[in-house]
Task: structure prediction
Amino acid sequence: MRKGVAMSRSPEPFPASQAAPALSSAKARTSDAFAIATQGLSKRFGNRTAVDGLTIGIPAGTIAGFVGPNGAGKTTTIRLLLGLVRPNAGSATILGHPLTASPGYLPRVGALIEAPAFYPGLSGRANLEVLARLGGYPRSRVSELLEVVELSDRARDRVGTYSLGMKQRLGVAMALLPNPDLLILDEPANGLDPLGIIGIRDLLRRLAAQGKTILLSSHLLGELEQVMDWLVMLHQGKALFCGPARDLLAQRVEVVVGTEDAVQLDLVTRIVSGVGYAVTREDHALRITCPASFAEELTRQAREAGATDLTIQVKEASLEQAFLALMKGDRS
Result:
């Protein structure tokens, strides 16, 4: 195990419309502004390309959501950043050090990848003490971190008796042992109940307030939306979006069109489908995820087409809606 990795404000954003945003003037925009920066990073496994020319930047001191469907390349990207697999092409800089010089940055990185591994016959405290001894970390960190993840009252119980949520919290404590500048968490809320999820959310905010950079991979888009301030979206190994999360959400709205007249709903559906925006039909209503600029245009076109008996509401789109719109190819 590498020391510093427990295995088991904002610079200029990248445009939302760029599938693979470029890092121009790399020296000026990587080592200081970005905790993580990749340029054309690629990884193939046989004939399958898991990461395909990935170019992203994650600013220091941010909570960055890392999202994408299964098979998008998220876990492979994380393994590349941690030096667990080697890229076939491209480069990366982590905490100011190139990917090829991992001893320069790994001691400052903590990571939880997929399901954390423990000694089930040992207590939670003993598991952390073993890792602290192997990594050369102060033993005092163990009690401190058990308190941080709210496991002090179960610290002397065997890990084999822990629930899935408790094991996840112990895994987060493992990742925090080196007091890292960069924390990489892959699905940390897996198995947590609502109170546990709230606890993880509060913990992440406290860590970010200390100046740590957090890369947070999760399928819980609603939870990510509440804590992240930067967003990286992957699809088929490529970046669909990399930038401030608020920029993506501000670009898209949900338009709810309601009427008792099915013919008028058909007219609106044809208008929306003609420009390629995501539309969902419900009883007497349509839900449309589109750029904010299209909402007024939709009203005008609907009236010109004869759909005048409509109620139209415009709401801010959720992260899930914006994500699905990008997945369907809407990058306006």
